[in-house]
Design goal:
With 215 residues, the protein is mostly helical. Helix content is 54%, strand content 10%. The chain contains ten helices and six strands, in the order αββαβααβαααβααβα. Strands 1-2 form a two-stranded antiparallel ribbon. It has a two-stranded antiparallel sheet with strand order 3-4. A two-stranded antiparallel ribbon has the order 5-6. A hairpin with an 8-residue loop joins strand 1 and strand 2. It is elongated. The N terminus is likely disordered.
Amino acid sequence: SESEEEEEEEGEVIPDAIWVRGTKAQGHRTDMVRASNIKKLHDLFLEMDTDRNGSVDYKEFQAHMDEKDGSALQEFTREIFDMVVNEDGQVKFDHLLKVLHPGASREQISTMMQMANDTKHGSGRSTRSGDGHPSAKQVEAATKLFNLYDANQDGFLCEKEFAKGLSHSGVYKNADALKEFQRIDTDEQSRVDLRGFTRWYVNMDDKGRERRNRQ
């Protein structure tokens, strides 16, 4: 049901920004991709998609250019359209993101799509349960990430596993991920268990939502 889907989505953390590595031609420069900019681009894409089929064809693109005199297109220019358009003459949003951010991994493109479709951005809805404790969905989401990062499946995240997991997703640069690990490794055992990771995850989830609510 729709209510169940909403509950499932509430356990996921959608970051305010991710770091995406550039291509070799760009000198592998790392750029920050902000959720607010992705959302604006997606809103523009939806505005162009007048027949609501999930893609933009040349007629829709040109009509928008004529209406706005090309001034509001920002990153979605005619040159970009020609690069993204498929054999059917259609441009899909995920393909547009891949062209605009050619150095992004598949996981990072997926995160950008979540940013674009984040209907609860800034809504003030909390994932916390009524008693102030982490919700079941937050715990479930944290556990899923923990198991994904735990490469050797020993029940702990070492510094390398933690940093690799976070930096690969693009949410943190590797150096910043290492700092986060040192911050949560309170007993200085050079490893973090599921309980400690979940506590960190929920804290970052809550802080992220607070920042979005202030925007």
